[in-house]
Amino acid sequence: MRAARLLRQGESQADVARTLAVHRQTVHRWAKRVESQGRAALKKAGRAGRKPRLSAADLRRVAQGLKRGPQALGYETSLWTAPRVAELIERECGIQYHPGHVWKILRHMGWSCQRPAGRALERDEAAIRRWKKQRWPELKKKPKKRGEPSSSSMKAD
User: Fold this and answer.
1) How far is the C-alpha of 74 from the C-alpha of 77, rounded, in Å?
2) End-to-end CA separation in angstroms for the chain
3) Does the pTM of the predicted model rise above 0.70?
4) Which of 90, 137, 153, 156 is most deeply packed, by most CB within 10 A?
5) DSSP code string of 102-127
6) pLDDT tens, position by position, 80-135
7) Could you tell me where the DSSP H helices lie in the chain?
8) Residue 8 half-sphere exposure, CB side, CA atoms within 13 Å?
9) 36 plus 10 within the same structural domain
10) Per the structure, how many domains does the chain have?
């Protein structure tokens, strides 16, 4: 709409393209559309790309399945992977997706990719803190101070 206004004010197509940071060919198409169909023709621009195969109801079913967890599908672990989500979508909606595309659907749904921290169940946090505070400084090599002879350059008498 701004392009139509600028063109009506007498701006050149090249100037409008620079102002709006679009290609000159795009402004040319807009100008032709406004000329033949009026400004309302610019409002009718449809969505770009293919229409989604999953409806809003499908996405709700997928979200419910995700919340139930992968163990509800018979998996041993509680970790969602792209192939597992692809299987969930196929079971719930009857639509096959490549696992590489599943992350786009999840991101659209507001889910994020998270990798669980690999930590032992027997982990003793207090013992780890104690080791880092006491034992690690004893083991760590300290840099030599300038002018201090190294042990290899000192000779026994």
Assistant:
1) 9
2) 93
3) no
4) 90
5) HHHHHHHTT----------TT--HHH
6) 999 999 999 999 999 999 998 999 999 888 888 776 666 777 788 888 899 888 88
7) 2-8, 13-20, 24-37, 40-43, 56-68, 82-93, 99-108, 125-130, 136-139
8) 9
9) yes
10) 2
